[in-house]
Amino acid sequence: MLTFRAVGVGFTLIAVAKAMTSAAATASCEPRGLRAASSRDAGSGSARQRLHKLLAVPGNVPSRVNDLLLLRPETDAQSSDTAPPKKCRSRHVVFFHGDIQNFQEEMSLQPEGAQWLSWSLEQVAVILGRRFPERYVWVVRASRMYLHKFSCYHNFLESNMFGAPEHSPDYGAFHHLRALLSHGMELANVPNPLQPQGGSNSIPSGFSLILVGFSKGCVVLNQMVHELGGARADPLMSPFIKCISAMYWLDGGHPGGSETWVTDKQVLKELAASGLEIHTHVTPYEVCDPMRAWVGREHGHFIETLEEFGACPIKKLHFADEPPSIENHFRVIQEF
Q1: pTM of this prediction?
Q2: Class of CATH domain 6-13+51-335
Q3: What pLDDT tens digit does each residue of the chain (336 aa) get?
Q4: Which stretch is the leader sequence (predicted)?
């Protein structure tokens, strides 16, 4: 989270009052479909050619839609009559962003967003493309940006207007993600698309998925962890879950006063048993803040409990010798 972490925790009433003049959400007014990213968007000419916005893509419930940003791997052939190399046909990474992050053109219109344009969704997609060069990169834009800065993932989990979560075991985050990816692949003409539902025969050969959450976006990963037991027991969802190879938590944070990291032992036992690669990359901005000491404690409990159940989470504290800063909070996206 940024300086607007919470009402009453670093987010002053004065800031709220000023922001109320622009309280409308940043819902897209463009029609559903695919379009190339603007020439003002991030990256080189090659990256811009591979970067596409898919607007109002539906999930498993038609009324639940998200805008997606897709960066195709460099090895993906652009010609419709030429199949891309096998190594990138069905390999994907999905990213859930934090507060203030939005499409570059929208961030540039907001005073608080303009100063962080280097971390727009387009820029992050390009960074992730370098981190995962042989994968399709999908950036999921939050369904609502309250006051143009608080990311709210209402399609994935229950949360308040500031995006603070209320986790449950059956909200349907995995179902929404699967259908969202399936419909996105169809719109973008991605080879061997995932089917929106079904068992193992509905998943393309070689399909694999990595999930990455940054800051507020980690609430989506937390929700999926809460749903993991039921999803693994579901014969239709289990084959999809088995295709998720890794989950990355990047400096998780949200405005609530607890549950920044999953702490339920039974839920973490299920995560440990899943065999997923678990990565946590944090900075002093989140885990060493004395005003929110529970974040560091919960992170420690998350790691220790997983290890207790036999998992081997990969953990790293970045910028440990530098003062906590928002800049380093964002930089973890480059450094993980």
Answers
A1: 0.86
A2: alpha beta
A3: 554 444 333 332 223 323 333 333 333 334 455 555 543 445 566 777 789 999 999 999 999 999 999 999 987 744 444 555 555 579 999 999 999 999 999 999 998 899 999 999 999 999 999 999 999 999 999 999 999 899 999 999 999 888 888 899 999 999 999 999 999 999 999 999 999 999 999 999 999 999 999 999 999 999 999 999 999 999 999 999 999 999 999 999 998 878 899 999 999 999 999 999 999 999 999 999 999 999 999 999 999 999 999 999 999 999 999 999 999 999 999 999
A4: 1-19
